[in-house]
Structure formats: C-alpha cells, structure tokens
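debug: dumping io for the single-chain case to check the tokenizer round-trip. Nothing else runs in this session.
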Amino acid sequence: MTRKPNGPTDRDLTAGLDSGSTTTKAVLLDRNRKIAAFSILPTGAASRDASTMALDRALEEIGASRSHLAFVVATGYGRQIAGEADAMVTEITCHARGIHTLMEQVRTIIDIGGQDSKAIRINGQGRVQDFAMNDKCAAGTGRFLEVMSRSLGVPLEEMGTRAEHATKDVRVSSMCTVFAESEVVSLVAKGEKVEDILNGIHHAIADRVASLALRVGLVMPVAVTGGVARNSGVVRALEARLETRIAVPENPQMTGALGAAMIAWDRVEGGDG
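debug: decoded output
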C-alpha cells in the first residue's frame, strides 16, 4: 500500500530501506538531498525486524525520530514486508537512481548482491533502459563467494587481496555452487595455491556477471554495486573480462537505499519518482 504525502510537510528527512537477502540498509536524506545518516545490518530470518532496526539506528545516529520522516520508500527482496514503508519501488529503479545520484556519467550498473546479480543500463537521466537478472542460481553472487570462502578457509574480506598474489591461471569451470565447491576442494588436494584458486573463482564470477552486462548492451562508463563490489578481485576480473575500467562507489551496498530515499523526496515534492 502506498501513502501519498498530503502537500508540503515540515518533516525534514526521507528514508530509503533496502531489504536484501543478506543485509538490510537504511539511508536518511535531508531536505537538500544530502545523506544525513545510514546504517547496515544483517537481515537474518526476519526482514521486517531488520528494516525497523536499520531505520532506528540511522535515526539514532543523528538524534532524530520517526516524527522527522516525511516519507519512507522500501526496495529489495523484503520490501513487501518492510513495515515502516509508505511506498515500495523495485530495486532495479532504486539502484539506477542511486548510482546516477553518485556517478551521473555511469551508463551500465552491475549489482552483485548476496543472492542475485543484475546488470542495468540507464540513460543520462538515470532512467532504466534495460536490465537482466540472475536470481535463480547462486553462481555469480555473494553466496557463491561465501561458500568458496568457507571451502578455502579465507575470510571474505581477504579474498580480493589474496588473489592479487596469484601467479598461475587456475580455471574453476563449474558454475553450480555445489559442483564448484567440489572442484575447489579437488584443486586444493592437487596442491594448487590458494591465491591461484581465488583468482580462478573471481574470474568465474566475472564471466557469469559479464554475460548479463553484455546482454543488456554494455555502455561505458560502468559501475559495480552491492556487497561483492568490495571484493577487489572480482572488480579486477570484471575489468579484464569487459575490457574497461569500472567505478566502485565509496559505500557500494548503499546505492539501492539511497535511490529509494531520493525517490521518497520526489514523492514528497510532487515528482513522479
């Protein structure tokens, strides 16, 4: 259900909630559409609770309360049950708006989340022109990296830097997560270096995700968002696969929530969002 703002309001914040499969993000924007605060929490088993907690934590950061909120837009997997929302907008639209706000020259967005990956082509106004999504298989997602991290005993946050020391091309040919895990175990048993295997894993993800970008019609410049964008190894592999430099926002997980908060101000001010 969507609540329509009743004309001008003296409430001075909007909020965007991005309820993802792995993490839930909240962004607060002030009247100048500048980020006032943001928070990120594990989603866990209760999307509604995570959305409430993320919003409250962002408000607490600046000493604000719910009474300061003019409008709240929810996006992401759990948007249907985000109890704090006045409206729901698809994550495709919100990611497009968020990255356009941060990097208005970008024309192709590659978003790699915990359970899906997507490519979005946008125009000069940040409007979606085309998109493709992989949400049926863990291949090319954060979940794939989590399984590989566990198999190799390398923390997620260290995978990218460890792969920088690869000295040999090791291919991970299986894109099914279960089969790829078995393949990685076999490579370890054969004595392949962990760094080389990590590099192969990153290139396997890049191959899968790059196919989405090529499907929508790759237009430069390109940006990568989502939690996996923090893995420098995946970004490097994507750059090699697509033969172009790729930009990464400072907080790549927050772009969907930022876009949602921007759309919330559009609703308040009478725009079409």
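debug: round-trip ok. The beta strands are 13-19, 23-29, 35-42, 69-75, 87-88, 108-112, 117-122, 128-134, 222-225, 246-247.
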